[in-house]
Every structure is written in structure tokens, then in C-alpha cells.
Design goal:
Rossmann fold, Trna Endonuclease, Chain: A, domain 1, 3 domains, five-stranded mixed sheet, 16 helices, SAM-dependent_MTases_sf
């Protein structure tokens, strides 16, 4: 049994069974794309409504696997997400065309495995992952999650009554529920208690005007015989009372005497009850109740409720499989607090973001479909304006406020020209190139605002930095750069070409691009969605070597291939 390549040894894993399927050993080499903001699609309230308004929410348009890879290579997001809710395709057959069940199942598992590993990396140590599914794949996904996240981190399989009608038109057994698998990142996760309902509070009464307030009576007998706990008690009427035959008291004699002295045993209105109860005071119990794994539609809403919510927002049925806001509300009540970051990488109609926004949480949503523009953006605009008063709005007193920023995935960094040469994408400018190289090399993209630190474009620690340039660096330039960096800092320099004599400077590490990045990812692939042709294929090792050595075979130029590669990247001199 081995850990996933992305997991390494970052935390102890359980011994576990592993699923096997066609294509499992084929892994994509994902390109960590940068995100490009489109200010024209950003949206925020005209004024701040409360001091807790959230404005730094993110809507990302693009393939969700590439988007997750982008987020997982961003130090500002990796390990910062408190709660992830996803509602992936259920693999009912409707998501695929013309393929047999085996291929559907394998493709679905490969699709989920890649995403789960990245989702796991994004969670805080006290975070949790919630996955909505039906019976088609939930049991396989449970084993897959055990393999990736750890069996010890499985918390619950919540059964949600997704349909509030009997389904009498079913030809077999009507399926009226869905599942929500719940995993924690680590033992640091602590679920919030749920507030007591009016019905639950009504169970606490005070018939004897106890100054300690309302209480709930709990039995003092147990359904088994223990000789130590079989003894008589005297009620207020002076009669001795024994536990029923075959049973005993729940407390030893000394504890029972203590409860009597504290007035915590109730013998009924007249003091002559046959069996007393122990008082559990509302003021002394937990501030809420522990959640349970059965969520009837009164708690989590139903698909019919969700459709009605969509109709209220868009005026007609606008989405095939929305989730009700009550379901997400319940999840976020348990798993998060105001200000926490929530992520949904299968955003769909935007319910997760809408609920998170109304609850004062920060959110990140990812969606590739055009409904990111036709559904999510107008929906979130109504939430922000306060005109969306459906769903949970009344329950949380939502009045509007906050905003979000719109991002799209940048195109691939490296493309092939008409002659098959790998070149920097003409759409990239110098700043985009620097940010992309930071992601590829594991640096945070943090350009210095100081002119004196013009070479600081990325940072991996307080003393280690990265600089990207497309111009030729001669010895004198490298000497000047080394002096500016100083002996207390180190700098990785990704450079088009440089004087080999410059390698003598101890505080500079020089690497030529593109050679230093070509092998790090598969380029110019934008679609990792549910299509058979997107099932990952392992690249032959010799193919990677050929790519890395291509420049060496073009000996007629001083820096073979680089002029073509950087022809469109611009010069940052």
C-alpha cells in the first residue's frame, strides 16, 4: 500500500485498501496556471452594509482541475480553506455519451481522484470536506477518500432526504435520499454544535419552580441488574421504592444521596412517584446539540425547494440539479464560522457562494460552464444588492453587501509554433511570465514595490527570492545583481541566456528558460473534464528527455531555440 504521489509523508496515513480501475496509474502533469482578473465582471455593493462585509470572494471561470492546481500552488490559498463542499457529477450515465459502464466508472474515479488530492491540500488543519452524491458512486468514493484523505478522518455519511414526495412513479424502489460524505483534514477539526429548536427547548420545564431554571427529567433506572446499584429509595411520601425487577439504579448509593441533597431528584408533583427522575438543567447542558446523520427535508430542504428558489431568482426553471440553500446552510453552520473561507469547485448554479455570502463567510467558486455567466454572476449580484430574499435570507436577516472578484484561468504558458517549436504564449507579458514561473518553481509571486529590490519578483522564504528576465545577462550585469542581492540573501534567476562565468556568484542560482520549466508540466491542455479522450495518459520517459535535450541539438545558435520561445514575451529591460 502506498500513499498518493501528492501526499508524500506530510501526515501519517492509515493502512488501507485501494481501489483499482482502468487508467488509475496514468496521472496528468498539471500546469499551474495563473489567474487573470477581469475587473469588468467584478461586482460589489455600492456601500458597506456591515463591518463584516466580505469583498475578497473569488469566482473563477475555467476547468476546475486546472483551477484547483492553480489554487494549490498559491501560498495565500493553500492550507487556508476551512470548508469545502462539492456536488460533483453523480455518474448516472447522463454525464457521458456512448460509453459502457466500465469506462464511465473508471473515468469518473480518475476525475475525482485528481481533484480530491488537490482539495485535501487546500484545507486548513481544522477544516473539513463535504461531498454530495447518490448511490451510483458513493460507496466507491468512500473507499477512494479513505485512500487519499485517510480512513481515520472519515466523520460521517449523512443521509439527506432530497425528495419530499413519495416517488410513486418509480418502476422499482423510489430513491428519495442523497448522501453527504464528511471528512476532516485532521483531528483538529471540531464541529460546531447546532442551536436547539423551539421543540427541543420546550422539553425543558420547571413544574416545581426550581430556582435553577427549566430542566429535563432523565430516568434513574437502567435495564440491567447490578447488585451494587440495587437498593431502596424513600420518596417524599415516605414509601420505599426499588428499581423494577431485573433492573437497577443508574447511580451508586453515594451518588444518589448526593443528588437528593442537591435537590436534583424529582418525585412528581405530589412527591409519591413510583420512579423518580434526575433533573438536567438547561443552564448546565451544552450550548447546542450534536448533529445527527439523518437530515429530513425539513432540515436540509429538498430538490423541489431548490427548484423553487431558482424560479424565485430567475423567474423560471433555470438549472437542472440545484441544491437547496438550507442544505448548505446546515453544513456551514456545523463546519465554519464567520470569516472562514469556503470552496466549491463544482459551483453549478452558485448556491454555495450565495449561502456563504449571506452567512458572512468568504468564498471561492469554480465553474467552467457558461452558467458561470448566465446564472452565478446574476445570482450573486442579487445577493449583494439584497434583492435576493429567498432561500435562507429571512432566517439570517440578509440585507445585502460585500462583493466578489472575477478571474479566469490564463492560457497555457508554452505553445508550439507552426514549425513545432515550443514558444512562450504570445498572450503572456513579462509580469505574467514572472508569476507563472513563480508557480512552477514553488515561489510566492510577490513583486517588490521598492525600486531598490527590482529583482524581487517571487519569494520562498525571508532570504530566498526569484527573478525572471528575458534579456541576456552578461558577467557585469550578474556581478551588479549579486552585489544588490547581498550575502544574506539568495536569488534564483530564470534567464533567457547568460555568461557562464557568472556562475561563480554564490548568492545566485542561474537557470535557463525554457529548459528549466519544460519538463514540469504538460502544456497547452485546457480540458480535463468528463470525456474519455481526457483520461490521463502517461508520457513515455524518452519523450520528456527528447524535449529537454532539444536545445542542445540545435548547436548552430548560441542559445538554441530561445529566440523563438521568447519572441512574443517582451523584454523587461
Amino acid at each position: 500500500m502506498t500513499d498518493s504521489p501528492r501526499q508524500g509523508t506530510k501526515r501519517q496515513r492509515d493502512l488501507k485498501l485501494e481501489l483499482t480501475w482502468v487508467g488509475k496509474d496514468h496521472r496528468p502533469r498539471l500546469e499551474p496556471r495563473i489567474l487573470l482578473e477581469d475587473p469588468e465582471k467584478n461586482y460589489h455593493a455600492a456601500a458597506r452594509v456591515t463591518d463584516t462585509d466580505q469583498f475578497e470572494n473569488m469566482l473563477i471561470f475555467g476547468d476546475n482541475l486546472l483551477a484547483l492546481q492553480s489554487l494549490a500552488t498559491d501560498p495565500k490559498v493553500k492550507g487556508k480553506v476551512k470548508c469545502i463542499f462539492i456536488d460533483p457529477p453523480y455518474n448516472t450515465g447522463s454525464a457521458f455519451e456512448h460509453y459502457d459502464d466500465g469506462m464511465e466508472h473508471s473515468l469518473w474515479l480518475s476525475m475525482m481522484r485528481e481533484r480530491l488530492e488537490l482539495l485535501d491540500e487546500l484545507l486548513t488543519e481544522d477544516g473539513s470536506l463535504w461531498i454530495s452524491l447518490d448511490d451510483n458512486e458513493v460507496h466507491y468514493l468512500k473507499v477512494l477518500c479513505d485512500e487519499i484523505i485517510g480512513r481515520r478522518n472519515f466523520l460521517a455519511n449523512i443521509v439527506w432526504q432530497s425528495k419530499d414526495t413519495p416517488g410513486n412513479n418509480s418502476s422499482g424502489i423510489a430513491q428519495t435520499h442523497n448522501h453527504v460524505l464528511v471528512y476532516r483534514k485532521s483531528e483538529k477539526f471540531t464541529p460546531n454544535l447546532l442551536g436547539r429548536t423551539e421543540d427541543q427547548l420546550s422539553n425543558y420545564k420547571n413544574p416545581d419552580d426550581d430556582p435553577r431554571g427549566p430542566w429535563l427529567g432523565t430516568p434513574l433506572t437502567r435495564a440491567e441488574f447490578r447488585e451494587r446499584d440495587y437498593y431502596p429509595l424513600k420518596n417524599r411520601a415516605g414509601r420505599q421504592v426499588y428499581p423494577p425487577k431485573g433492573s437497577s439504579w443508574r447511580r451508586p448509593r453515594s451518588k444518589m444521596d448526593e443528588l437528593e441533597q442537591e435537590g436534583r431528584i424529582y418525585w412528581g408533583k405530589n412527591g409519591d412517584a413510583e420512579f423518580p427522575v434526575e433533573k438536567k438543567y438547561l443552564s448546565e447542558v451544552k450550548s447546542g446539540v450534536v448533529n445527527q446523520t439523518w437530515w429530513p427535508y425539513e432540515i436540509g430542504g429538498s430538490t423541489r425547494n431548490a427548484s423553487a428558489e431558482m424560479k424565485g431568482i430567475f423567474g423560471a426553471k433555470a438549472f437542472d440539479t440545484p441544491k437547496p440553500e438550507k442544505l448548505i446552510h446546515r453544513i456551514l453552520e456545523i463546519a465554519t464560522n464567520p470569516g472562514d473561507i469556503i470552496l466549491d469547485s463544482f459551483a453549478g448554479s452558485g448556491t454555495t457562494g450565495a449561502v456563504a455570502h449571506k452567512m458572512g463567510r468568504r468564498w471561492i467558486m469554480v465553474e467552467l460552464g457558461e452558467h458561470a455567466h448566465t446564472h452565478i454572476i446574476p445570482r450573486m449580484q442579487k445577493v449583494i444588492d439584497g434583492t435576493d430574499q429567498g432561500g435562507i435570507s429571512q432566517a439570517v436577516g440578509w440585507k445585502g453587501g460585500g462583493g466578489f472578484r472575477y478571474f479566469k484561468l490564463a492560457p497555457t504558458l508554452i505553445k508550439k509554433d507552426k514549425r513545432g517549436n515550443e514558444i512562450i504564449n504570445p498572450e503572456y507579458n513579462a509580469e505574467m511570465l514572472a508569476e507563472a514561473c513563480c508557480k512552477l518553481k514553488g515561489f510566492a509571486f510577490e513583486p517588490s514595490a521598492s525600486r531598490e529590490l527590482w529583482w524581487q519578483q517571487g519569494r520562498s522564504s525571508e532570504r530566498d527570492f526569484l527573478f525572471v528576465t528575458t534579456r541576456y545577462m552578461d558577467y557585469a550585469s550578474l556581478q551588479d545583481l549579486s552585489e544588490e542581492v547581498g550575502p544574506e540573501r539568495t536569488l534564483l534567476v530564470l534567464v533567457k541566456a547568460y555568461d557562464r562565468e557568472g556562475e561563480v556568484f554564490d548568492n545566485l542560482t542561474l537557470e535557463k528558460i525554457p529548459e528549466s520549466v519544460l519538463h514540469l508540466a504538460e502544456w497547452d491542455k485546457d480540458d480535463y473534464s468528463l470525456k474519455v479522450e481526457n483520461l490521463p495518459k502517461a508520457a513515455p520517459e524518452k519523450e520528456l528527455v527528447t524535449t529537454a535535450q532539444r536545445a542542445e541539438r540545435r548547436g548552430s545558435r548560441k542559445m538554441a531555440g530561445v529566440p523563438d520561445l521568447f519572441a512574443a514575451a517582451g523584454d523587461d529591460s
